[in-house]
């Protein structure tokens, strides 16, 4: 029986698809969804970076998804690839991403949703969170939590699926 589903999210399209699948399963089995955003000190995940770049380059009023992120953060991101956000800024953006995907869960009828922001190596944090929460399943995006370097040394989703003690589903 599925009682707890862990879903690591970073704002990428793949992680949103993972949230949608987890929500469908959770509503069917009355399971809890645990949403996890992992902060990398001094580094913004590619999914969040792309979402912010779209917001900065587009019309914030119509873009919706990250429209409430403070202007100071948005202005610093611009189209620069090497911008370094402070830990507080990354934490704010991570919590905002979680609030958006939490709304997806609730819209799909999930009554038990928990959001967590943790710092550290994504693979280790995901595996530890799954163990600590006694998750029955991890559903995560195939790409998104890692960049090109991840393709060379192994993606987060690949590492998690090889080391997790529970069922893992990767979404494309």
Structural class: alpha/beta
- Please list the strands of the largest sheet in the order they lie side by side: 3-2-1-4-5
- The CATH H-level homologous superfamily: HUPs
Mean pLDDT: 80
Write the H/E string, N to C.
EHEHHHHEHEHHE
Main beta sheet: strand number and arrangement?
5 strands, parallel
Distance between the termini: 24 Å
- The helix count comes to 8
Q: Residue share in helices?
A: 40-55%
CATH topology: Rossmann fold
- In CATH terms, what is the architecture? 3-Layer(aba) Sandwich
Total strands: the figure is 5
Low-pLDDT stretches are 59-67, 149-153
Question: Approximately how much beta-strand content do the residues carry?
Answer: 15-25%
Q: Give the total of domains.
A: 1
Whole-angstrom Rg: 15 Å
Shape: globular
Question: How is the secondary structure organized here?
Answer:
Elements: E1 4-8, H1 13-29, E2 32-39, H2 46-57, H3 60-63, H4 71-77, H5 87-107, E3 113-119, H6 122-133, E4 137-141, H7 148-153, H8 156-163, E5 167-171
Parallel strand pairs: 1-2, 1-4, 2-3, 4-5
């Amino acid at each position: 029986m599925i009682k707890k589903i862990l879903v690591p999210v970073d704002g990428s399209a793949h992680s949103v698809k993972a949230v949608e699948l987890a929500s469908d399963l959770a509503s069917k089995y009355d399971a809890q969804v645990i949403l996890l955003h992992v902060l990398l000190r001094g580094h913004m995940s590619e999914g969040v970076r792309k979402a912010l770049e779209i917001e900065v380059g587009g019309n914030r009023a119509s873009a919706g998804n990250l429209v409430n992120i403070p202007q100071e953060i948005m202005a610093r991101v611009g189209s620069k690839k090497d911008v370094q956000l402070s830990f507080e800024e990354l934490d704010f953006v991570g919590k905002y991403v979680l609030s958006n995907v939490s709304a997806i869960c609730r819209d799909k009828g999930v009554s038990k949703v928990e959001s967590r922001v943790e710092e550290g190596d994504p693979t280790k944090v995901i595996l530890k969170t799954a163990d600590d929460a006694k998750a029955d399943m991890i559903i995560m995006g195939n790409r998104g939590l890692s960049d090109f370097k991840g393709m060379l040394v192994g993606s987060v989703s690949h590492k998690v699926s090889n080391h997790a003690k529970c069922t893992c589903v990767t979404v494309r």
